[in-house]
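Anyone opening a protein record will find just a pair of labelled lines. A complete record is shown below as an example.
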Amino acid sequence: MTDRAQTFTLESVTAAVLLVGTVIFVTQVGGVTALTASTSSQQVTEAQYGVAVGVLDAAAADGAVRATLLSWDPDDSSFHGTGDYRYSVNGEMPTAFGTLLNESFAGSGYTYNVNVVHVDPTTNEQRRVPVIRQGTPTDDAVRAGRTVTLYDDDVLLDASGAETETTLTEASSFHVPDAVDGDGPIYNVVRVEVVVWPV
């Protein structure tokens, strides 16, 4: 009986030594440095991307994205409610889309920009027009986008969100050019981009 107990004890000690040795080996091989991406940081980034996509989906579904694009003052060549700038610099775009963005990101430790991306019809270069600009995105910024088709007969909105009598083809200015000349109904196809990053 004593030999059997000693054998069990020896097996337990050997297993413990192997376990400790394995932990030490793994720790030495897979060192953690300041440049090692943490899992929690990656999860937070993925969560913010999910929020940005959700906001865009919701705003596109109820027409809030399109309404923001059409909330344009052709006389001042600027979005409504943007003061001395053509675009919003404080994140308070006075549209339903702007309100949804503020509710989703303001006070959460994240900030955002909104851009309209289009192809310049004369140079074929991609251009970004700011709609809301709160700063320069960091390297860990996430981007979510949705394509919106603008039509020649889309009507501009006034500062209260009501329709004016001015269509895109009649407007003296607009933030993207008419990319389709001729009799076709399409004015331009743009991508609305939301860029989110931690403050």
Notes: Residues 39-198 form one domain.
